[in-house]
Model the fold of this input.
Amino acid sequence: MTTLAGGTDTLTRDALTVLQPGFTGTTAPDWLLRRLGEGLASVGLFGRNIASPGQLAELTAQLRAERDDVLVAIDEEGGDVTRLEVRTGSSFPGNHALGAVDDVELTREVAHELGRRLASCGVNLNWAPSADVNSDPRNPVIGVRSFGADTDLAARHTAAYVTGLQSAGVAACTKHFPGHGDTAVDSHHALPRIDVPADVLADRELTPFRAAIAAGSRAVMSAHILVPALDPDRPATLSHRILTGLLRGELGYDGLIVTDGMEMRAIAGTYGIERGSVLAVAAGADAICVGGGLADDATVRRLRDALVAAVRAGELPEERLAEAADRVRWLARWASTAGRAPEEIPGSEIGLHAARRALTVTVAPGLGSPDTFKPLTEPPYVAALTPVANIAVGDETPWGIAAELVHLLPGTVTGSFSAGDGNETAAAAGESAGRAALEAAGPRRIVAVVRDEHRHPWMASALGTLLAARPDTIVVEMGVPQAAPRGALHIATHGAARVCGRAAAEVIAGL
Done:
């Protein structure tokens, strides 16, 4: 076995190279810097690592002082899933809002500006966009992260997003292959199963990925989903048939294949992260993403040692591990030379412009058209009917319109209402939440804010209670607008980013 400078042999170095770990804190810990010197080539950033753009730039500079071609990855989709603006909400609407506008040039411009901001902070790999076709409206994890339920729409906007992001010098990582849209299970919690024929998958799920590959997506992320029509035994992340046979062979993709987070229960709860990582690389994955919940040197050491042991035991071909490491280094070289000098566009409002265009406004019959709606002049009561947070989004990111309405209509009051402890029926929980909101609102005009009303029976019940007592209630839907519009005024924002809330608040306040 060849030993390299610093005492790290080639096999151990390759095992480190294929890992994409996270870490805690806003500065790089000593263990991470040491591992970069030993061969680690990628680092994943999350909201816990970011306090401000300036701090993030200092952090990435610290990493590059140890390894100048390090891949610095982030989960920055814009919209509901943001790490750059995890504490304030995103300046960019997400995919569903862009799909609602259906202007591919606007999608390209939004992705370019988001990429420009990432590049200016030293980030060069983005785990985005989501190319999933949201064909199951019950989907608890994709939803507004998808461009929509229409395959061709998702395909053209996926390609535009990839093009825009990479034009800013940031590698796109299109996800979640072969498509996470047709499921009602969240792979953070369990292993989803998609039971549709292979021809449906080819025509629906795979079409946006073909578009991404044609657009030159530098990376593709696998999904922790079981698709029996493709492989009845193993989830996509661990399937040689899906990653090597389908993605590499049939679709002709030759870029980096990244796994979704290996600590997610769909893999960790069934195979364990060490065994899962070995199987993923053997199946054709090149980079192992881990660190959303596991972010320490012990995890990196365990995964490195598991890969090395698998090679020595003959379970993982050494040439497969070497090939994976070479692809990581290839992308690192591309990213280190593809950086663009950030254009000076201080305060660019392309995100707010897109959010405004994405709004769908419906006025109740008999009350006229959106043009004749009389905006509020007095501060309202905002009743946020709040579901359990999607793990991909995180519960630390604020959502809603209250903060924006407070700015436009000082004196606005807000309250949050939920299904309670879960021991009541949906109808009872909803009625209880609705009555509590009515009592808290008093005589103020009510603005009810919901998120995926169609997926939450208690929420639909609470909204019904509000509307029965106060038919002049304004309803703002910040998820997928699957339920029929209700309320004196219904505003569908197609996402819960901060700019989506701002756009809705402007309509309510008549701006």
In short: The mean pLDDT is 92. The longest strand covers residues 171-177.
